[in-house]
Amino acid sequence: MGVFLLSSPAFLVFFSFFTFCLLVDPVFGITRHYKFDVKLHNVTRLCHTRSIVSVNGQFPGPRIVAREGDQLLIKVVNHVPNNVSIHWHGIRQLRSGWADGPAYVTQCPIQTGQSYVYNFTIIGQRGTLFWHAHISWLSATLYGPIIILPKRGIPYPFSKPYKEVPIVFGEWFNADPEAVISQALQTGGGPNVSDAYTINGLPGPLYNCSAKDTFKLKVKPGKTYLLRLVNAALNDELFFSIANHTLTVVDVDAVYVKPFKTETLLITPGQTTNVILKTKPSYPNATFFMTARPYVTGQGTFDNSTVAGILAYESPPNSLHSSIMLPLFKPILPALNDTSFATKFGNKLRSLASAQYPANVPQKVDKHFFFTVGLGTSPCQHNQTCQGPNGTKFAASVNNVSFAMPTSALLQAHFFGQSNGVYTPDFPSTPLTPFNYTGSPPNNTMVSNGTKVVVLPFNTSVELVMQDTSILGAESHPLHLHGFNFFIVGQGFGNFDPNKDPAKFNLIDPVERNTVGVPSGGWVAIRFLADNPGVWFMHCHLEVHTSWGLKMAWIVLDGELPTQKLLPPPADLPKC
């Protein structure tokens, strides 16, 4: 199967599947209208046909294209039996938290037969983000890229590419993912793993019964291509490489970075990476695999397979090349558990920190937080046999609090002052019971449960250290913060040392992201300014860990000025 290439200035031509209206405002950008019809449709992969939840009958879902400064009005209509909500991953949602999307956090889900218009403006962001369902495991098939172009007249801080290509990684389950997680939560054991990884919904030729479902990127010699990479997989960090080609990283999580070259990159679920691919100057008489496979640090089972797409050069006119079998080169990816590569790759990422694109790192800190993140256990229900460690149920927590999802939305409860019985503002700022976090695990692995939040005054500057634990084995955790970007000022292995480690923090040009991998057996320190009023979810982007409770929420209070206050809820906000 081929691929449609985004090409300026004619990138809008492929939007024939949308009702797409443009209302021009020369100062603030334009208003773009999309309609997402969430429906069931049959999809066949790996010789398995199943009914999936999708948007507009597409898998993956449609791409959103906008410019910095544009307003988006996206009407989501739910035609399926499942409750649905959509998260616009990485969009700051300044004062528009009602449009952020996580179910029971900023909204009640959209029920069958109902609709909701997500209304937000893209402020100060350009690059690649993505949208996905944010309820249960519907994001296995409900996802698509968000492409944010710079304002008109403002160039990229790198050479303009010949073409732009979204490459979205996903996971395919032959079974219904909703049944997979439901069974796991019932038994207390780990969920069944996926059957394949995908590139733009296609598993590729390394899987049985899949050769026809292969992503092919056709390129011309001597050109530059901007590949917009998104990891929308549910549970796996991924290594990615294109055989015999070097990639230049220019942007992560819709923030420009100092460009650097690499043969291979690492991308966690929830992260995006823009890379420049320079094709060979002349026709190479070969084709090339682009492959991705997991980076694995935990002790549980995982999908140990490889997705492959094909990079194919257009043959010269009047040549015989198209009719002969060309040699196929395959990339060499790091070992599955290559934490050394993961660390070195992460350390190469630095903000541009230029006059035009400054790195506004908070230099002073108002509030310090230290969060442990990791797995634990919960007791098995009476008269039940559970499949977790030693007959317990798997659980996950932040500071040993496994987050209990409410049955109404946190943001509404906060906005209307009705928090009683919904949440409590007493999330611990440090572990209540300190221990040797990366040493021998404690005897008691049980987590506590609660719907606890941290409350921050407007414009609080925050430093948060997230520490992996070895309670059920050290593991990398990609943590995603809604509503903010943050600066990764430091990271290391072992236990964080508050007396020595801060001296090594990078406060000049740290990378700015919305999702960071907490190192396996280590820690990461981030800083952000709480300048966005609302309720903001933070969770591991390995969906299995989120399902087990590795999540929490921050409440940022209104500021004094009208421009520092959360806007009131829209009239069509879904009800629980």
Structural commentary:
The chain is mostly beta strands and 576 residues long. The chain has three domains: 31-149, Immunoglobulin-like; 163-348, Cupredoxins -  blue copper proteins (Immunoglobulin-like, Sandwich); 367-556, Cupredoxins -  blue copper proteins (Immunoglobulin-like), CATH 2.60.40.420. The chain has four helices and 34 strands. It has helices at residues 177-187, 339-348, 410-415, 543-548; strands at 22-25, 29-45, 48-55, 64-67, 71-78, 86-89, 115-121, 127-133, 143-149, 163-172, 196-199, 216-219, 224-231, 237-242, 247-252, 255-262, 264-267, 272-278, 287-295, 307-313, 328-329, 367-378, 393-398, 401-403, 448-450, 453-456, 460-468, 477-481, 486-493, 512-513, 515-518, 522-530, 534-540, 551-556. The strands form seven sheets. Strands 11-10-13-18-15-16 form a six-stranded mixed beta sheet, with no helix packed on it. Strands 12, 14, 17, 19, 20 and 21 form a six-stranded mixed beta sheet that branches. A hairpin with a 2-residue loop joins β15 (247-252) and β16. The longest helix is centred in the first third of the chain and has 11 residues, at 177-187. 49% of the residues are buried. Residues 1-26 have low confidence and may be disordered.
